[in-house]
Amino acid sequence: MEEEEDLENRPCMLQDSLALQATEKSFYDVLSAGQQLIQHTCGQKYLGRYEDFSDSVEGPTSSKHLASCSEGLDQTELYDTTLLCSSKNPGFYSDPPCCQNTDAMANYDTRIAHDKLKLIRLHCSPYGEATERMAHYFADALEARLAGTGIELYTAFAKRTISAADILKAFQVYVTACPFRKMSNIFANKSIGMLTREATSIHIIDFGILPSGPPKLRVTGIDFPQPGFRQAERVEETRRRLAKYCKRFNVPFEYNAIAKKWDSIQLEDLKINRDEMLVINCLYRLINVPDETVYENSPRDDVLRLIKQIKPDVFLHGIVNRAYNSTFFVTRFKEALFHFSSLFNMMEATVPRENQESAEIMNIVACEGTARVERPEPYKQWQLRNQRAGFRQLPLEQDIVKEVRAKVQRRYHKDFLVDEDDYWMLQGWKGRVIYALSCWKPVDD
């Protein structure tokens, strides 16, 4: 544990588990496929120059030294500047294109579809303005849908070698330019801190684990299995990093690693001790658990039933607020256009365009069946799902919401928003809600 990690040569494994999930398919699913967006665990892959949002100004200011700020740092320092709230890390609508004739794509009418694609290609570019870049990625995805090459593209994407160091640098760019991840962590950490202030022993069960007189801390890190013989390698990597931080800050620490399909986890796997304060943390990862549109018995509801069985003192739930989980292609396509028009507009204002990419579009447009692993629901739909599963929603801590809102207003672009609705803290861009967070408790039977 004392040895320094070789981040430059260590591959980033965060795509692998979803690649495995997408390729576990029926013969029907071979007809389509796609790729998966890195942001759920490590933020957007934006490498290179970026902008610093200082506390003293409302908008972005030029900051030349930040482009290579991680060069020359040792591995511990790199993690500190990326993951900790330190002074070295200061930042922790145009109309969508026309979507006529998508019926041709839905029905695989290749002649009409190819004619329309040719027209789209005349007006799109990966290097153009926001709308042109978005049209480029949607055109790529439509082409893959027609050609049936999604699985090959997805597999190629998952096998790309991206070092852990590059992912950390990309994540640092992301949290500096965009508040969503950092403010989500502040919301979760402050909420846990208020709840566990008097606790002598805390057990955090983290679905979608990432590194994030003290009490004894026990963490159960859960993630999807990776392909191959070392299916729990990513979860174990996180254990080693957390252990180093806990040793550094003198926190007694235990860790239980689980790499399984989440709906197959049993209560006994979690090693519950009823003398501990129990916290469930699940930020933005249930999007990748299949629902009733894929299987008659929804794995998504199975996970919620497991969480209710655990009987946590609090269940912190972060969701990706998107409405493109329809089984009907045209509906899904239109909703994705509206959503990504906001995202690309946001990226245009905050991140250099040459460093942007969106593989999530490929998965949404080119995939059907179990190959489609991006399955978001709006927060109102999650609210009903959680209530049906036997949870009641807790009021938001107003001091935490005020702190998050003040940080976003002070440090980030003026068009980012923080709002509240029915016990949800909402984050978004120019009036469109992109993420939502809330706290829940199981209702006694």
Automatic annotation (TrEMBL):
Give any Pfam family that matches: GRAS
Coiled-coil regions listed: none
Keywords from the named record:
Transcription, Transcription regulation
Similarity field: Belongs to the GRAS family.
From what organism does this protein derive?
Solanum commersonii (Commerson's wild potato)
Motif placement: VHIID: 202-206
- State the residue spans of region: Leucine repeat I (LRI): 92-152
Q: Record's PROSITE patterns? A: GRAS
Q: Which domain of life is it from?
A: Eukaryota
Name of protein: GRAS family transcription factor
Task: Give the residue range of the signal peptide.
Answer: none
Where are the stretches annotated SAW? 366-441
Leucine repeat II (LRII): region residues: 237-269
